[in-house]
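Exercise 7 asks you to align residues with tokens for two separate proteins.
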Amino acid sequence: MEKINISVKEVEKKIDEPILNINDLVNMVNEKCEYLNDPNMDNYIALEIDYNINYTVDQLKNIMKYYKLSTRKKNKGEIVQELVIFELDPVNIYMVSHRKYLWTCIDAINEDPYLSKFLNIRT
């Protein structure tokens, strides 16, 4: 068996100026994480959590069908992701607002003691 000898020599190095100052560090972090400052990122995460927790796959598929989006061969995670991207696109704001309004009306009808006897609407 061979012996390995290791020797460590300490060298003092004088640094005149700091390698990185705090402003450079902040700027670098801001540039690298620019997407975190996007207000839509908060909306994206909130909507994704809402759909994952509060909706079944069948309910999500109904929403997808309303928007005329394909549900074929997609799991819940993929459906949620596609819905969130669709709903946060400014081009679709009218359709999304209208769908949410109609879903609110359906919930109100289902909760009404009189109308719920005559209309059987599920979301």
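Second protein for Exercise 7:
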Amino acid sequence: MDKLASKTKAIFKRNPTVVYSTFLIVCIIGIIFFNTYYSLQKFQQSKDALLQKKAVLTEDVFQHLVAVYFEDPQTLQSVMEKIKLNDSEILGMSVAVPATDFQSFSIIADIEKENIGKSENSVFNAMAWQEEKTGVAMLDSNDGIRFWVVIKPVLDENGNKIALASFKLSLEDADAFTRDAINRVYLLAIFSMILVLLLVSNHARLFLYVAKAAHLEEIDKMKDDFISMASHELKSPLTALRGYIGLMTDGSAISEEDRKHYFDNMNLSVQRLHDLVEDLLDVSRIEQNRVPIENKSIQLQPIVTQFVDEMKISASSKNIELINNTGVVPIAYCDPDRVKQIVVNLLSNAIKYTQKGKIEITSKSDREFIYIIFADTGIGMSAEQAKNLFEKFYRISSDKTKDISGTGLGLWISRQLARKMRGDITVESIEGVGSHFTLKLPRSEK
């Protein structure tokens, strides 16, 4: 799971357009559902308002019927029952007259005959009796069925209140229709979301193809860089070896001094070939995760001092001052052989890319890590060059570096080794001023 998450994060990091597209798609899905929910809420409110008007209008008709047949309760009862038979939405119709204290009402007609003669003492009846024109309209429910209740006073020809007409209009059919509409809308929204997700999936695959194409293009460029670098790095020492071998085998008399000089140069050429092969093998081992790392508690200062002393001659030949100011360094927890490999590489690079001035090695530490800083007064580099510096086969191309040999692998190998020891290598540089390479290694817990 963590591996999948890291891969997804890497894809998003390399392709910010994917993040933007994903954000837009999430917004589209959110807007679809919000619009659906909002529209359905408005539809529900509008439907309830329309049915309320229908209930009030029906109640007005019923109120007039009550006024007409008030003196003949049996005929009124018969008319109410016929109305109920013709309209299934009507749940209740009743007529009640007030008692002498106007606190309770006696039912004189009701579509439920068993209710006739019963007395009602309802707050809503009292409220409706006080409202001559509007009466009371409210939304109620029973056993999951919603209905509108409208109660209005009945007036005689002189405008006097003589009774209360109560009417109940069911919303069951309307609610069923609304539920079906809501389900259809949500199904449509879910179907739309599935289509969007399929589009996202297809979009993601397209981005993966683009990423793979870009990666293949990058690999192709790296291959070209490798062939160019390898041909140059192999050709130069091989040409030198052939030349010296030719000089030594052409039958001419060679002095002992010249012979020694030739052998020394041949040895340097062989060393260059050896270093190139070792770098390529290290790259292969690192990429296949076959690099043995044996961390232990070690002193870093003796390692730095050893290689500073060994390389002082090389630095002096270029009039470069090599200064070791590491001081007292805490005990580190890392692989001593890999640390030596990194230190040699960083010192060699500093000497190669410094034309004059000095190289100073210092140290600092915090609670978790030790930092060895290699500061030079070399040619430096731009921010863009520093950004690409730790990539495989990357070398800074300029007039100042064209005569400096190298594979473009040393820093990549060094950083990978440092990271495998839970450390890192970073660089800060100013073009024409110099560079500071910082090797970070974990402190020993002992």
